[in-house]
Amino acid sequence: MRAFVAPQTRGPFSHPHFKDYMTNYLRRILCVLLLAAQAAPTGAAIDQLQATAHALEQNRAPAPGAPAEVKYYRIDRDSDNTTYDYSEEAKLAADAKVVEAQLKAAGYTIVSSKALKKAFGSGYFDYTLEQFIEYSPPAGRAASDIQYYSLDRKADNSPYSWSEDDKLKNDSAAIQAQLKSAGYIIITSRLIRLYFGQGYYDYTLKHYIEYLPPAGFRAETVKYYTAERSYENTPYSWSDDYKLKADAAQVEAGLKNAGYVIIRSKFLNISYGPGYYDYNLRYYVEYLPPVGFTAQEIKYYRLDRDSQNTPYSWSEESGIKTDGKSMEDRLKAAGNIILKTMAWKDAFGQGYYDYNYVYFIQYTTPLNGSTAEILDYSLWTGRDGNPYLGWYGKNQAEADGKALEANFRAAGYVVLEAKVIQAYGEDRWGYYIRYVRPVQR
Q1: Which of 4, 35, 135, 312 could form a disulfide with 320 if both were Cys (CB 3.0 to 4.6 A apart)?
Q2: pTM of the predicted model, to two decimals?
Q3: What burial letters (b/e) apply to 311-347, b meaning 16+ CB within 10 Å?
Q4: What is the phi-psi region of residue 258: left when phi exceeds 0, alpha when psi lies from -120 to 50, beta otherwise?
Q5: What's the pLDDT tens digit per position in 66-101?
């Protein structure tokens, strides 16, 4: 089964990027007016421009006479993945009606639907059947591509054997329920046998799912998250399954808290030798944003220097854990969601104590919030324009920096890190601030 877009001719006002162009154009005008104004601009003028831009974005109807977008769907294999033979015209028609009903449920209009004969020989019955469906979204709405999901391995990452069709169907039903909860419409699903030999039972099973968002919405692809290293940044050994499950549950909870739908999760055994216990564990999570939302990027924060701007030494494990937890709290205060943290030894020599500590944080923003960019500010000169030099300069840099830090907080920023820093190779000092604007919802 495949879906593709028909080539067609469009008017200039129905160009797929016309709406985006005009919206951005009006927004640029708004920015210019804001920047050019010496005093606060009148609220009425800005409200009018914003209303105009919003109206343009919402008014997506094509120009009169513009052709509607038409897509095509072919159904030529049944739920058991076998072709419809010459005697199954009624069965094909019934299955096609189900697909048409799902497309209608997604907001599409069926333009046409017809059965075709696919001849493969010269005999009277040498043909199979195919249903050809044309469908179109409402005027002004875009048509999304049909997405595909293949399920061929169980939660323990082993293939579904020839005898596990019931288990596969149940697992597939659970995934389809998750896709539906994310706002997607299931178009069709079918069972496929994957042959690997000549014997009667030499096959495994796969379930193939096709799904589609409602008309006018763009389909998001399924995202993947893998967890294979513990808090201490060591691999999960064969005996750490309980530990891995607890850590992975925290990641799943964080993704759900961010607004995602967990599609599926499973364990993987990563073998590295021939022995029975020569493997590590990995947890694999599939997740998807609900229809209408765009997936946010998973970000990383690396903490490897303390408030004195020196690396965390081998003896400061408790110190970096405390500072790392404080950093997590500050990221949360900015509206972020912590997914996973790790601390590890950053070796730099051969000796037993030749290492420093690093604290690593994975976090993301909620789906209904804007990404908060982390910003940096370095203060190297005082109010008189002179650099901070020597012992007195170090104290003055710290005092001025703390005052500046307080101003950032008063302005609504969340300060992540603040510390005195030294210019490389010089007796010159400064104050370093990392701060972030809270997530906008």
Answers
A1: 312
A2: 0.73
A3: bbeeebeeebbebbeebbebbeebbbbbbbbbbbeee
A4: alpha
A5: 556 899 999 999 888 899 999 999 999 999 999 999
Q: Looking up tokens 């692809």, which residue turns up?
A: 221
**The tokens 């799943």 sit on which residue?**
252
Helix (H), strand (E) at residue 248: helix 241-257
- pLDDT band for position 178 (cuts 50, 70, 90): very high
Measured distance between the N- and C-terminal CA atoms of the chain, rounded to whole angstroms? 40
pLDDT band at 371 (very low <50, low <70, confident <90, very high): low
pLDDT tens figures, 129-153:
999 999 999 888 888 889 999 999 9
Looking at residue 13, the DSSP 8-state letter turns out to be G
- Residue found by looking up tokens 């022995």 in the block: 275
pLDDT (tens digit per residue) in 1-17: 444 333 443 444 444 44
Q: Is 435 exposed, middle or buried (0-12, 13-18, 19+ CB in 10 A)?
A: buried
Phi-psi region of 425 (alpha: psi -120 to 50; beta: other; left: phi over 0): left
HSE-CB of 435 using CA atoms within 13 angstroms: 20
Please tell me the number of Cα atoms within 13 Å of 20 on its side-chain side.
Answer: 3
Task: Render 183-217 in DSSP notation, one character per residue.
Answer: T-EEEEEEEEEEE-SSSTT-EEEEEEEEEEPPTT-
Share of the chain above pLDDT 90, in %: 50
DSSP letter at 321?
H
Residue where the block lists tokens 């969601």: 337
Instruction: Give the whole-angstrom CA distance, residue 150 versus residue 287.
Output: 15
Burial tier of 78 (Cβ tally within 10 Å: 0-12, 13-18, 19+): middle
Tell me: pLDDT of 41 over 60.
no
**Exposed/middle/buried for residue 410 (C-beta within 10 Å: 0-12, 13-18, 19+):** exposed
Quick check: 232 pLDDT over 90? no
The contacts of residue 343 (CB under 8 Å, 6+ apart) are: 231, 232, 233, 317, 320, 321, 324, 357, 358, 359, 360
Place of tokens 């061929």: 152
Q: Of 360, 277, 352, nearest to 315 (Cα)?
A: 352
Query: What are phi and psi for residue 331, nearest 5 degrees?
Result: -65, -40
Amino acid in the structure at residue 91: K
Mean pLDDT over all residues of the chain? 83
Contact 9, 67 (CB under 8 A): yes
